[in-house]
Amino acid sequence: MLLLSLFIGLVFAYGLISERIAQTPITGPMIFTVAGLAVAVLIPEQELVGGGLDTFLSIAELGLALLLFSDASRTDLRELGRDKVLALRLLTVGMLLTIALGASLAWLLFPALSLWQAGVVGAILAPTDAGLGQAIVQSEKVPLKLREVLGVEAGLNDGLCVPFLLFFLVMAEGTSGGSVVSLGSFIWQQLGLGCLIGAGIGLVGGYLLERAASRGWMAHSTRQLAVMALPVLCVLAAEALHASMFIAAFVAGLASQYRYRDSEHASFDFSSLSGELLNLFVFFLFGALALDALAGLQWLHLVYAFASLTVVRMLPVAIALIGSGLNQHSILFAGWFGPRGLASIVLGLVFLQQQGDTALTQMLQPLVIVTVLLSVLLHGASVPAGIRWLARRS
Predict the structure, then answer these.
(1) Nearest to 203 by CA among 161, 260, 261, 164
(2) Total number of domains in the chain
(3) Helix axes 359-393, 342-355, angle to 10 degrees
(4) Do 367 and 301 contact (CB within 8 A), yes or no?
(5) What's the pLDDT tens digit per position in 57-90?
(6) What is the CATH number of the domain that holds 202?
(7) Model-level pTM greater than 0.70?
(8) How many CB atoms lie within 10 A of CB 382?
(9) CA 163, 167, 112: angle at the middle one, nearest 5?
């Protein structure tokens, strides 16, 4: 209860000065993560854990699903249709190379890891964070093509990384035989079913919302609640069918626009606000729980973290966008602004939930935490300067 009270008080204080903060390089996730670290010094560890890992994971998953749905609902489908090849390049060549390069580097730096365990590291730290990248995709100073492509990449790559993470976990545990079949099954279950669930809920939900709105059946407040119910339904359906709730939520946000285009997306504000609140709570908890894990930090963890945010991300993006028509400044910008945050936290929690307290988790936990911490700080602080740099060269 004390932890929740401190968080609510911080939310109130943040709301009072949010406009002033928006004029600085400081971001909400930075503030709440640092506040969590400070709280960890004052509150006993057993009180921080509270409801346990399962509760933390559920909050993080729901917050990410709401945020992905909201971002997808604001995606310009016509612009995306024209630039879908760029997004596809990042989600295939770019993502696969990022996982492979991240796994290879982990294998080289940490000899105790098997190749499959190194693949777990690569999969956890490959996805980019839609929330940390909001300042980029919402800035009109960034070319629309680049904003849409980065937004779609961040919306889909976390869900796409899930089957690879589960596959590497299975192989790391020594399961033999049927590896190709297992990976194909994971991809179909996570990606295929996730897309079907999201498309079904988004299309049907959008149709019903459009019909009800056109007949004047909905009040504005309940319209917001009805819209927010769609990503929650995606989470519940995906959980029941063992599909990716993140893929489902993002696809539902895209599909709902087919029939329901609310004026200025006003009815999507509530789901966006709810998702942002949950995400800030996750970063607050992340900061509170990170301090203990960082006790096992080694200098190689820092080397890997810096490499993960630079060469492991930027080289695959550059290769994926060769011949894309984007100039070198836009490619460099896209490569740098691939923040690691909520998605990596969620995948890391999935890993911890499945593995428990083992030697492997004790080795990988500080690696994931320091990478996310550095990303929150470095990417957040560099957004204003990065946007100005790109604007001068566009």
Answers:
(1) 260
(2) 1
(3) 170
(4) yes
(5) 788 888 878 878 877 777 766 666 666 788 889 9
(6) 1.20.1530.20
(7) yes
(8) 15
(9) 130
